[in-house]
Amino acid sequence: MTRTDFDYVESESPGTGRLDPRAALTSDAAVFSLDGDWRFRLASGLTDTTEGLENPDLDDSAWDTLAVPSSWQMTGLPGETRYGAPAYTNTVYPFPVDPPRVPDANPTGEYRRTFDLGADWPATGRTFLRFEGVDSCFAVWLNGIRLGDGKGSRLATEFDATPHLKAGENTIAVRVHQWSAASYLEDQDMWWLSGIYRSASLVHRPDAGIPDLFAHADFDHRTGEGTLRVESDADGRVTVPELGIDIAIGESATVAVEPWTAETPRLYDAVVASGTERVSLRIGFRTVKIEDGLLKVNGKRILLRGVNRHEWDPDTGRTLSVETMRRDLEIMKRHNINAVRTSHYPPDKRFLDLCDELGVWVIDECDLETHGFVHIGWKGNPSGEPQWREAYLDRMRRTVERDKNHPAIIMWSLGNESHTGDNLAAMSEWAKGRDPGRPIHYEGDWDSGYVDVYSRMYADHAETDRIGQKTEAATTDPALDAHRRDEIPFILCEYAHAMGNGPGGLSEYQRLFEQYPRCQGGFVWEWIDHGIRRRNEDGTEFFAYGGDFGEPLHDANFITDGLVFPDRTPSPGLLEYKKVIEPVQIAISPSGQTVVITNGYDFTDTAHLRFTWSVEDGGEGTASGELTVPAVAAGQTAFVEWPEPLRAAASPEAAGDASGERWVSVSAVLVKDEPWAEAGHEIAWSQTQIDGAAAAAPTRSTTEAVVAGREISLGAATFDALGRLTALGDIAIDGPRLDLWRAPTDNDLLGWGGNVSDKWVTREVGLDRLEHKVLDVETADSGLTVTTRVGAASTDLAMGAVYHWSTDTETPGRLWLTVEITPEGDWDFVLPRLGLRAALPKTLGNVTWFGGGPGEAYADTRAAARVGRYSATVAEMQTPYVFPQENGSRIDVRWAKLADESGNGLTVLGAPDFAFTVRPWTTEDLAAAKHTHDLVERDRLYVNLDQALQGVGTASCGPGVLPQHRLHAAATSFTVGFEVPVR
Ligand code: GAL
């Protein structure tokens, strides 16, 4: 073996000995799976590789075994890794940028196995060796003969094995290199993982079979007819029994059909048969066009309510089971998501079958990203270098050829973050020629010379608004500018970075998408946190992120920025997104006693939905029923009068004596089971308050505060000599005092594009270490007044905080506290929160509240918060962000009771409401923690009662908190009540 034997590793060439790419087809031709255990050895570099790896006689009995498909770095997890370790970088290459060269320290996996195709394997025809995905570069031998080599980690590769196959035992050997020239083209923001991580197989190709085909299935919305034509080099017939179609390959048939859309994924089973092979297809008839400057399917503008999906599993990395793929789509569909961008590579082919079946619009993206060149000013970026042309075209061909028969795919994407260059333009040109039926997407081409949609990422609301109005800044070339401005639609291929707590500002984006026809929606970044399940020393499981495997260069938790946690539990961000993009809008008018229902679907009417109403009084249901709504056509609105039972239930007479706030809710649920959700699953909802004051105004008594030694008592309350509440009844309390800090969120910390977070995040203003100086404690007939100055070391900024305590005239055991706040000095930064913090006995861990819920909500993430009565344990009220940060605040809480197991405890009352957080650890603990297992419960509960919190925004990558959701220091006052039962 010489060094030149490895030339392919550092060659720009996409591979040698490979067969032309073709569609992934379901055929009755024989398939032999090579999945399962292979012999495996990890070499540290090329000089450490095995001489004679390909030799069938090589004794590999001492080698370990490794499963195909898998990535070798994931082996051994969640315990100890066995072969190298995952490593995470976002944009930087984890090796010197010197294309096409890669480091000598190039971990190389050597795989071997034997197989016997058996006596039944067809004796005629050919047999292809097929790899669905090998990361990043490999060479393959069969029975000692080299078949070739390949690159393109997320693309299929086939070799002709026929001449070298034997009856009986065959030996296959594969050498997989972690780094190769191809690594320069695969700089996606994800873990670097290697190996044969998708399935491998031998597939029989019968003589006179159907190696490839391209099914064109258009739909003419004017006639309601579909036209099917199957293009193939093979001879054979195409039948669609349900449609009575029986035509030759190459012929077309036009018949009345039900079209395929993401809302109505109507598929027709078809068979394409030659004399020797039958291929099964699922045909969806639809036509995608850019027309009138809009992206239209079947003649209609569609609105993309999308997500960017990487393939991820916390235990197996990018090797996914079909169940996991289905689960992703089920969760998406249940949360009103209708589109997926396969960021940033073609997914496992089975995922696309599921997209066809369950119904989502797909942008299928080529496996291409050269982002790391940005750090050297895009010098030598492969996108513009002729020696990479073939690799670019090869990747595009393999993307389109494999996936061309999926109705779900409505656009091809050239790749991601690879700047601009002729090679990209060439990919586009090739794809348009091969498949005129699908527009081309690529975000990096802002001038939009070779794309069919103007695509951007993280444009803020204001810019999106300008784009909607077509008043955005001009591009360099006037002709391109005119094309972009007038002829093509706009999408945000990435927006709303779902990292940690957030994303905030989704509602405001959605309004823009609804307002401007040109803005056809977007794809939230991203679907899932790529956390890796690990165990710490004491066996506690947690999700690892960049740096947790000792990588010298990494991008920390930027890898955990999904709408679902690594274990696919929906995050609050997903619940918010579901509400914001709900396809049906419901507006309840108490004055008109009507419900206005607007159908925001693009195609379907509302016949698949059942509408229900309910009336709640103080969070207790008093009546409910059905709302008869005629099927509302797509884009139409219906006005429905309240039915008599709802009128009666909502009438003033129906309000009981002890009436609290009364609310009417209307909900739209599935009539019947869908493949992705059961009947009764809620799609949309709305609620409106009909009456009841938010909360009774505090009635303050004139109870005297009494000083006794070092204590002060007032009604049921006991204070220390400095006027701090120490007990209420027999509940020990570390009394409430002003709190202005929160554990920074990812969005606070990363503050993107200059809207950096703030002086409070950098801690320079010391909100995290406030000192409370008591200036005066005044006991009077009407209660207790404590005057304080709250400031931090090193600064003279301060808040005057005056606490007025009094009892309640009507309710013994109740106290009112009004806090008056006066900023002193120049508070030229936003406040993360403004409120009170107290500590309570740990036993009060059962919480019931009336207000927003059930999940967390902040000023700009509150669409999904419903007013109601909720119960949860303190543990359940924590949101386990992979990187711990502020979480769990409930909004608009009118009252909250914290009780022990027997129901005794303390009630906090709003006047009218407050934002409510309770945790078993402090804010400081939360801010110091790097992983969930760093959070250790203390022996107290820590409660925050906030007048307001700063919004969340999405500045970890994108716009910060919108002005209307920012919290500024200002003179203010707020009131809360505390109540304990009196003995
Ligand atoms: C984009 C990129 C994504 C991801 C995101 C931030 O620029 O396309 O892959 O890195 O930023 O999470």
TrEMBL record:
What is the protein's name according to its record? Beta-galactosidase
Which residue ranges are recorded for the region named Disordered? Answer: 1-21
Q: Which residues form the Beta galactosidase small chain/ domain?
A: 713-979
Against Pfam families, the record matches this protein to: Bgal_small_N, Glyco_hydro_2_C, Glyco_hydro_2_N, LacZ_4
Principal EC category: hydrolase
The Swiss-Prot or TrEMBL record describes its family as follows: Belongs to the glycosyl hydrolase 2 family.
Give any Gene Ontology cellular component: beta-galactosidase complex
Q: Spell out the InterPro entries in the cross-references.
A: B-gal_small/dom_5 (IPR004199), Bact_Beta-galactosidase (IPR050347), Beta-gal/glucu_dom_sf (IPR036156), Gal_mutarotase_sf_dom (IPR011013), Galactose-bd-like_sf (IPR008979), GH (IPR017853), GH-type_carb-bd (IPR014718), Glyco_hydro_2 (IPR006101)
| Database matches in SUPFAM superfamilies | (Trans)glycosidases, beta-Galactosidase/glucuronidase domain, Galactose mutarotase-like, Galactose-binding domain-like
SMART domains linked to this entry: Bgal_small_N
Q: Which GO terms describe its molecular function?
A: beta-galactosidase activity; carbohydrate binding
Q: Which GO terms describe its biological process?
A: lactose catabolic process
Catalytic reaction annotation: Hydrolysis of terminal non-reducing beta-D-galactose residues in beta-D-galactosides
Q: Does the keyword DNA-binding apply?
A: no
Q: Which UniProt keywords apply?
A: Glycosidase, Hydrolase
User: Which EC number(s) are documented for this chain?
Assistant: 3.2.1.23
